[in-house]
Predict the structure.
Amino acid sequence: MTEQTSPPRLLSLLPFGVFLSLFIGTGIVLTLQGVEFAFYQLPASVAIIPAIIVAIMMGKETISEQVNQFIEGAGHSNIITMGVIYLLAGAFGMVAKATGSVDASVQLGLALFPDYLIIPGLFIVAAFLSTAMGTSVGTIAAIAPIAAGFIEAASLSPALVAGSIISGAIFGDNLSIISDTTIASTRTQGARMKDKFRVNFKFALPAALISLVLFAFLGGSADYQSEQAIDVIGLLPYVVILGLALSGVNVFVVLLVGILLAAATGFVSNGYQLSALASDINKGFANVQDVFILALFIGGLSELVRRQGGLQALTVSLKKLAGKLSPNNPKRAAGLGIASLAFSANFFTANNTVSIIITGETAKELAEDGNIKAAESASLLDIFACINQGLLPYGAQALLLGATIGISPVDVVVYSFYPMILFFAALIAFWRITKN
C-alpha cells in the first residue's frame, strides 16, 4: 500500500503545541503556587496524551487508519532500539549504585584533589561520573549530598559549588556513550556513537578547560576528609564499559557486560546477593519507564504529524531561516538550523532527550540537505539541547541541586560556566570547519 502524506501544513504542528502548552503551562502555574519541582509534577508521558488525541482529530483518515499510523511510528526500529537501551542503562545504573560503584567513584575522585582545588575537582568528579553513568541527574544525586556536607564546614560559595557540579554533569552527560541524549541523537541521525563522541569531544574539551580555569580562579579551599575507605574494585565496571564503548563494541553488549560486572564486584566486595540483582534490575527498568513510554508516544505522534504534513512544513520553514542566516554556505546554514532547533525545543520541554526525539527527523533532513555528516548533526543536536538544559532554572538538574544544597535554582545556574562557554565554543568551532 502506497503511503499517503498530506501537503506541507504548519497547522499540523498544533499537537506539539498542545503538548508543550500543557507541559509548560502546568509547570508555570504550579511554580506560582509554590510547588516544588513544579515542571515535573505532570509527567511528559501523560501531557502528550491530549496532543495525540488532537492529532487524530485533525487527521483526514479513519480512526483505525490513524491508530495504525501511530503504532507504526511508535514501533519504528529507532524508537524500539532506544527503548531497550534505556532499560539496560537504567538497570546498569541501579546495580552500580547498589553495589557501591557510584560511591567508590565519588570518594576516589574527591580524594585525588587538594583542598584548594576542590571546586574544579568537583567538576572533574561530576564529569567522570556522568560520563560513566550516562545521566546528569543521577550524577548530581550522588555528589550533591557530599558537596552539601563540606559547604557547611568551609567558606565555600554554595552557588559556585553548584555551578561546578552541574557543569561537570552536563559535560559528561553530553559525551557519555550510554547517555539517553547520545542514544537519541545517534539513533535519529543514523550515526555511530564513537564517531559522535569524537566530534563532540572537539567542541567540548576547550569549553571544559576554560571552565576549569574559571572554577580554579574563583574557588576557595575546603577541609574535606573522606569518611570511608575507597573501594577501588568498585571502579572496574565503569572503566570496562567506557573502554568497550569507545572501542566500538555494540551498546547492548556494553550494557549487559556492565550489569554483570557491577554485580560481580558486589558479590566479591560486599556480599551482594543474586536476589538483590534481580530486584535492582527491575528497579532500574522502572526508573526509565517514563522516558521509554514517552519515546513510544513521541514516535507515534511524530508519525501522525508527518503524515499530515507538519514536519515537512517545519523543515521548509527552517530551511528558509537557515538560508537567510548563511545564504552562501548551505552546510553552515543547515548546522545553525539544527542547533537552533535543538536549543529552542529544549527551552520549552526542559528535557534534552525529549527535545532531541521531537526534532530528530527534521534535523536529519537539514543535515542531508546541507551535506553534514551524521556524527556532526548528532553532535549538534546533543550539544545544544544539553547547553540549554544546563542553564534552565526549571530543569531537573538545577531543581535537584538547589533542593539538596539549599539555594534557589536560579542561583544554581548563575555559575554554570560550562554550558555558557560550550555555546560559543561549539558555534565558533562549527563556523570554522564550515568556512568556504
In short: Residues 11-433 form one domain. Residues 200 and 301 are 29 Å apart (CA to CA). The mean pLDDT is 82. Residues 193-218 form the longest helix (26 residues).
